[in-house]
């Protein structure tokens, strides 16, 4: 059932996020497609991260974490940030905040966040983040993960 369930889950289109921070002078990050807005007051969002991630234990030590919504032009970066073997930050442009969050330049939306809580969720961790600052550019079209591939958002009307 695991393979069938994984396939079924991919049929729900989701945005792709770069989750990153500067840790001990080096960029640390990963790609996440399990993202949800949680609350406006207080401003909260949630990510689901594989419990077996080797990156999250390092990234979770950051004062603040950047969450950036990748655009259609960032499909290459989505794959690169998910890689276990390549330099995840090669040829990518990120802006560093005063507290060390890395925010992707030219992202559709960018959130600087503090970790509020981390809870187990089966084979993933549910990471609740408090948004401390953000910016967005609605003219930039977000990248979508659908049916195990990247896709573009199109308007129907």
UniProtKB/TrEMBL annotation:
SUPFAM superfamilies in UniProt: FMN-binding split barrel
Pfam families to which the protein is assigned, alphabetical: Flavin_Reduct (PF01613)
Keyword Disulfide bond carried by entry: no
GO molecular function: FMN binding; riboflavin reductase (NADPH) activity
Protein name in the entry: Oxidoreductase
Lineage of producing organism: Bacteria, Bacillati, Actinomycetota, Actinomycetes, Micromonosporales
Alphabetical list of InterPro entries matching this protein: Flavin_Rdtase-like_dom, NADH-dep_flavin_reductase, Split_barrel_FMN-bd
Residue stretches making up the Flavin reductase like domain: 9-152
Family: Belongs to the non-flavoprotein flavin reductase family.
Keywords: Oxidoreductase
Record flagged with keyword Oxidoreductase: yes
């Amino acid at each position: 059932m695991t393979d069938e369930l994984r396939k079924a889950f991919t049929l729900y289109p989701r945005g792709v996020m770069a989750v990153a921070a500067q840790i001990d002078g080096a960029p640390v990050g990963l790609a996440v497609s399990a993202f949800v807005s949680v609350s406006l007051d207080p401003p909260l969002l949630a990510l689901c991260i594989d419990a077996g991630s080797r990156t999250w234990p390092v990234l979770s030590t950051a004062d603040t974490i950047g969450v950036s919504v990748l655009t259609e032009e960032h499909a290459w970066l989505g794959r690169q940030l998910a890689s276990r073997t390549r330099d995840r930050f090669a040829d990518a442009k990120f802006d560093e905040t005063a507290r060390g969050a890395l925010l992707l330049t030219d992202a559709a939306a960018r959130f600087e966040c503090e970790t509020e809580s981390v809870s187990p969720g089966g084979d993933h961790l549910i990471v609740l983040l408090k948004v401390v600052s953000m910016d967005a550019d609605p003219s930039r079209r977000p990248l979508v993960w659908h049916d195990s591939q990247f896709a573009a958002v199109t308007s129907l009307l």
